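HUMAN:
Could you generate one sequence with tokenized structure?
ASSISTANT:
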Amino acid sequence: MAAAQLLHDIGVKVIGISDIDTALVNEKGLDIPAVLKHQDKKRTLKGFKGAEVVSNEDLLRTPCDILLPCATENQITSKNAGKLRTKAIIEGANGPTTANADRILDDAGIFVIPDILANAGGVAVSYFEWVQDRHGYFWEEHEVNERLEHLMRRAFGNVLARTKQHRINMRTAAYVQGVDRVAKVIKLRGLYP
């Protein structure tokens, strides 16, 4: 719901959304404030007017530019990966794509921003909180958001550069980036000669 609200706020047309048991689609665009108001009042998407109710599996197959699996792991599998009609996937959930599905998405040319990159913001903000507590001062929300945006843009750029440099997908590039950073820190600390 938070992703839908943020996307709506910057002018993105959100055509589908789901909760645990209801998926809504409106190819002309959902009225996200109305969807969120309904969900907040009813605690479910069931009964929302202004959208077609489809299965969560059908929602994944709805043609779109960007698909955001944000709820549970293993949503995109070898059984449904070849049926997705999207240009890009941004993994908001932890592990929403299986390894076999990853290969299918690569072959289909679908650009995937992996979970360890896409949803790293929460960990980054936890770090910001720790830094503030250690120094006894606190940033305004806009300062946290600016720092987070800077950090996430830099991380995305670094991973994308590795993708191009090594001709690998974003997930593999994110792993390479992470392992490389850990190795450099271990070397700097002198733990291993």
Observations:
- The mean pLDDT is 93.
- Residues 63-114 form one domain.
- The radius of gyration is 19 Å.
